[in-house]
Design a protein that fits this description.
Elements lengths: L7 H19 L14 H41 L1 H7 L4 H13 L1
Length: about 110
């Protein structure tokens, strides 16, 4: 048989036989591109639980910081309004006390 006399069906059949033989021969050697990972469910649950605990702990810290900041702002506002606190923040030297007394008498 000449190659001209081979029909299209015979060519396809020969190619399919070559594919089948090469798969038999090399299929055991070639590994698949994407291997299925072995998933440990207990380990995954533990990691998720640890992650959730970490998130909750950080959320609690942020809430405590917000509360402390609000308390500090409240204290600062009270100190700004406090007359005694203003007097205590002034320097307590004799010269300054005399200068304050003179200013009070002049006004």
């Amino acid at each position: 048989m000449d190659s001209d006399e081979i029909t299209l069906e015979e060519k396809c059949e020969n190619l399919m036989n070559v594919v089948v033989e090469s798969r038999k021969r090399f299929g055991k050697i070639i590994k698949p591109k994407n291997q299925i990972p072995n998933i440990d469910v207990d380990l995954m649950r533990k990691e998720v639980d640890d992650f959730m605990a970490d998130i909750l702990e950080r959320k609690k810290r942020v809430e405590n910081l917000k509360k402390n900041l609000k308390d500090a702002q409240h204290i600062v506002l009270q100190l700004n309004k406090d007359k005694i606190g203003k007097k205590l923040r002034q320097p307590l030297s004799a010269e300054t006390m005399l200068a304050v007394a003179k200013n009070n008498q002049l006004t």
